[in-house]
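Complex record, four chains
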Amino acid sequence: MFSTQMPDTRSDSPPSALHSSSQEAGWQRQGKLWSNLKELCDLLRIPAATSITDEEFLFQHVQFKTGQRIHTIGQPFDTLYIVHSGFLKTVLIDEFGNEQVLSFPMKGDLFGVDGIHTKRYASEAVALSNCDLILLPFKKFTALGRAHIELEHAMYSVMSRELVREQAMVSMLGALSAEARVARFLVSLSERFAEMGYSSKLFNLRMTRHEIGSYLGLTLETVSRTLSAFNEIGLISVDQRSIAIKDADALKTLRRLPPSSSRAKQGAAKKAKQAAAAASEKTEPWDKLATA
Amino acid sequence: MFSTQMPDTRSDSPPSALHSSSQEAGWQRQGKLWSNLKELCDLLRIPAATSITDEEFLFQHVQFKTGQRIHTIGQPFDTLYIVHSGFLKTVLIDEFGNEQVLSFPMKGDLFGVDGIHTKRYASEAVALSNCDLILLPFKKFTALGRAHIELEHAMYSVMSRELVREQAMVSMLGALSAEARVARFLVSLSERFAEMGYSSKLFNLRMTRHEIGSYLGLTLETVSRTLSAFNEIGLISVDQRSIAIKDADALKTLRRLPPSSSRAKQGAAKKAKQAAAAASEKTEPWDKLATA
DNA sequence: CGGGTCTTTGATTAGGTTCAATAAGAGTGG
DNA sequence: CCACTCTTATTGAACCTAATCAAAGACCCG
């Protein structure tokens, strides 16, 4: 029924008539129709390829409505997506049909990268709100990257960033308590909203408790309970999907209460000091590496 | 004390005298000194850049001894590493000095990718055994990629593969029970050993219970107990670091006993069917996408 | 207004952590 | 070569976090 919404991802080059004549007309309406390279870089928060103002390199936008799937698992891969506006989720689906939420892409996020390796998407992307996405045909993009080194490096950079993000996720799931996970989730959401120009103190959750729970490796009941607990302590104010951050610092510093595993016996003190030093950028211990 | 082991990662171009004259001599001894592009591709298990047999593109090897650190968190990034032989771990270190194991790189694995984005390594890599690593100066490599498209694509491919791997990790941590995690860990280790030409049935763990636990989001006690349990049931045979796989199928099919969260109510059946279809590659439901 | 989804809250259970003590290896030095 | 030490592994017992089961209320949309 919504098949007319589906973009033709194969039309790499925009019809010149369209983007030259209707440029001003369709530009502001219900999402842009085309973006140039500079806008892409701005969106991705990367140094930006200032040398390329080439207006010929335009990228198509597509709109999706709440609930629509952008791609499914196993579908042949040929394009990456950048979120221009709106909220989504990416999920893995196990053999029993259970969803595992992997990320909540929002403005400036790239997704679809997991399809490069096997030439098929490894995850499913679903719109949690009406979305405006920019299509990045992979072939076209790598070709562009070959001509513009900064762009190529930007691609590596973004993929690397994604990897680091996943690592942080693994670390969180492996070491933090339920409270700490929910707290961090709220903080990172708050920060993302701030980056996007929204209020960092008051916002609406775009996802269900179930989706949050899946993302954080918790049950929806635990998420709900934890939010209620934060509410009672005065850290936040919750009412259904609306969240008001009351004590951001407390949320940020809320470490694992009793949870986790590892705690290096005698090496802990030394290592902590080391890590602190590395963080403060004062001493730099990587000159005496490889010293067991 | 081991500082003489440290390679000079800045010498991008091998002294031609060395690789032309001592090629056969130093080639087989205690790890190669140089590898060409084809060997790299073989190692990385990617299509291989058959068009490039250019012997000029040689990559330096370096040896590390057990316990040595290859790079630390915060250290300026300039090179990627490919494991030629040996076993390592990559870890994150939190503010208290606790280690969170992220991966156990072994033959054919690439690591260091997390340094691309911020120009500094985001994790620490430590040798769990004597290792022979291939240095991949990032600058040099991207330059090469520009000249040889297949190589560039290989890089994207490997990074994408890493991302998928991390996603699988997140999924496991978020949804599987302790038993299932340990079982999967053993299975994947077994498969890796098989790929490397070792026995898939009998092998030695290169890492401690503590490291396994950190990797799987469990305590060392739980890992130990679970292994003992598998031992009693007859799935495996354990004695300290040595593992004998007795019933690989049982380990593979050992799903989460009671654990996890998410369980789609009405959509589950449909979704499961869908996922199964996608897996069996028979029907392909991605033509009617975006249908809520 | 009614069916369905989403959320909250309670009671109970259980899986996994924590604390603790012992044993087995590995490495060191006399 | 053996005593000594340090790291690693095993196992037990108690506790506790988070999952499970259950039920009721809130919200949304046609």
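Note: The mean pLDDT of chain B is 81.
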